[in-house]
Amino acid sequence: MSGLDILRRSSPAFRAGLILTLVLALVAALSLVWTPHSLGGVAVANGLRPPSAAYWLGTDHFGRDVVSLLMAGARTSILVALLAVAIGIALGVVLGLVAAARGGWVDEVIMRGSDITFAFPAILTAVLLTALLGAGTSNAILAIGIFNVPVFARVTRGAATAVWAREYVRAAEAVGKGRFRITLDHVLPNILGLLVVQATIQFAIAILAEAALSYLGIGAQPPQPSWGRMLRDAQTYVFVAPALAVYPGLAIMLAVLGLNLLGDGLRDALDPRLRTPRR
After folding, report:
1. Nearest of 217, 223, 249 to residue 76 by alpha carbon
2. Of 19, 84, 141, 203, which one has the greatest count of Cβ atoms within 10 A?
3. Are 223 and 69 in contact (CB under 8 A)?
4. In the CATH scheme, what is the code of domain 3-32+59-274?
């Protein structure tokens, strides 16, 4: 199915999610080459200024431009989410495919290992890594990525097991095709749509997790901007400048909302059987 077909069959909610996600990506890309003000400039004398022509959303307690921080924070969120989801896909999909293809004790070992890993949330894993390696963006990526592995393993194993029961796969086995070749030629192509949808959902969860870890002080570290750390800094001035907490919170909400709407729309477009009935 082409992208135009998906757009034609998509709902208004999907289009809204696509627009929000594209805006997030464009803002993050723009922050690589331009921000209204320098991110490194600290001018306490300009701290907590209200919105103006020079500072569109005002300044924080260090005198830094809030718009510039939000733009750079989008870049941090996307980077962490991309790498964390990539780790989950790279390891989880392979484990899920192996579990479905081999079955038996191999399937049991992989699934029980996934259950054990899934029992440790990303935040708890990040705390453990911080205790061992110290706080930082790389450890946040690793923690969220480890949490994503059993998610993709479960989804892949469930979908692949269903494909292995299809007649054309049985026919391929009957003519002597190996399990590895069947997995690549028949199983994986038939579950790619589901994996794309799951990746979109996990991307949204990863953005939330990154913000939570940065808020706790174990994610992105200064001077790297982060929406979560902006929220953490804003809590001290919530009665003086409450808008400082509203802006990053709104950015997180819109990013997660857009990705969730996009994931739901992709699910409905790629698998009409799962489409939500309209009244």
Report:
1. 223
2. 84
3. no
4. 1.10.3720.10
